């Protein structure tokens, strides 16, 4: 039996999130909504706090762009049949996509007023319409994802994972690995090799082994990818 807080979350989703996303072509499975495009999949995921307890519950919403084969080359895992946000080439929480660029979590407590869930549902729906869906709509192809990863990051996009090298140089190895894998998937093996060579020459924070492992898995996947 669902807890009172989980029942409230499900009611919020049923009343405000599911109808909006269903109209946009998303299909819900558990806490994740997916919309499959020709080359990639958009997703909207309900993320619950690991600190939830019987007295309160906190959750947020994350939007992601999943590119098939990318995560299973980056790390040795089976290709997910129902991807989640951490499997995505790009993802961001709703609050980080807003003009304020501040992470937003919604809190449910036993002392909430009757209108609390209505306010939360309306806020999530408004943020999806204003920020979440427009973010996803920027990416319809693998090439658009690759171009985003290669381009200088705009200030308004700094909440999108993986972060830019300028803002978070400690995480730039992840961005480089994703770009190398996407180049391979799109059939540009020369650029993929060049990115891996550059990452290997400037590997930081223990990424040397990761570069070598990604290079090996790219080779094992059959050389050049399927092309654009």
Instruction: Assign an overall shape.
Output: elongated
Mean pLDDT: 91
> Which structural class do the helices and strands define?
alpha+beta
SSE run = HEEEEHEHEHHHHH
Give the helix tally. 8
The low-confidence runs, each spanning 5 or more residues with pLDDT under 50, are: none
Q: In which range does the helix fraction lie? A: 40-55%
Number of strands: 6
Whole-number radius of gyration? 19 Å
Please report the distance between the alpha carbons of the first and last residues.
47 Å
How would you characterize the overall build of this protein?
The mean pLDDT is 91. This protein has two domains: 4-146, no CATH class; 162-220, no CATH class. It is of the alpha+beta class. It is 44% helix and 15% strand. Helix 1 (4-23) runs parallel beside helix 4 and helix 7 (189-201) packs antiparallel against helix 8 (208-220). It starts with a helix and ends in an 8-residue tail after the last helix. Strands 1, 2, 3, 4, 5 and 6 form a six-stranded antiparallel β-sheet that branches. Strand 3 and strand 4 (56-66) form a beta hairpin.
What descriptive keywords fit this protein?
single chain; 228 residues; alpha+beta; 2 domains; six-stranded antiparallel β-sheet; 8 helices
In short:
This protein has 228 residues and is of the alpha+beta class.
Q: What's the arrangement of secondary structure elements?
A:
Layout: H1 4-23, E1 27-29, E2 32-36, E3 41-48, E4 56-66, H2 70-74, E5 90-93, H3 94-97, E6 106-109, H4 116-137, H5 142-150, H6 172-185, H7 189-201, H8 208-220
Antiparallel strand pairs: 1-2, 2-3, 3-4, 4-5, 4-6
Helix pairs in contact: 1-4, 5-6, 6-7, 7-8
């Amino acid at each position: 039996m669902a807890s009172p807080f989980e029942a409230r979350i499900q009611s919020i989703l049923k009343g405000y999130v599911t109808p909006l996303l269903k109209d946009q072509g998303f299909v819900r499975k558990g806490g994740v909504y997916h919309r499959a495009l020709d080359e990639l999949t958009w997703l909207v995921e309900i993320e619950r706090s690991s600190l939830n307890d019987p007295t309160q519950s906190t959750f947020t919403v994350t939007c992601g762009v999943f590119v098939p084969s990318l995560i299973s080359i980056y790390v040795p895992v089976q290709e997910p049949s129902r991807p989640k946000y951490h499997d995505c080439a790009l993802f961001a929480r709703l609050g980080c996509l807003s003009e304020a660029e501040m992470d937003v979590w919604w809190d449910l407590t036993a002392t909430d007023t009757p209108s609390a869930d209505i306010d939360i549902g309306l806020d999530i729906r408004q943020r999806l319409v204003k920020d979440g869906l427009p973010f996803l709509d920027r990416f319809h192809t693998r090439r658009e994802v690759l171009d985003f990863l290669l381009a200088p990051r705009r200030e308004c996009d700094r909440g999108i994972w993986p972060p830019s090298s300028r803002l978070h140089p400690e995480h730039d190895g992840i961005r480089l690995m994703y770009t190398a894998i996407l180049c391979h998937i799109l059939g540009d093996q020369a650029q993929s090799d060049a990115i891996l060579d550059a990452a290997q020459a400037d590997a930081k924070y223990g990424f040397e082994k990761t570069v070598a492992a990604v290079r090996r898995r790219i080779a094992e996947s059959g050389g050049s990818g399927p092309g654009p």
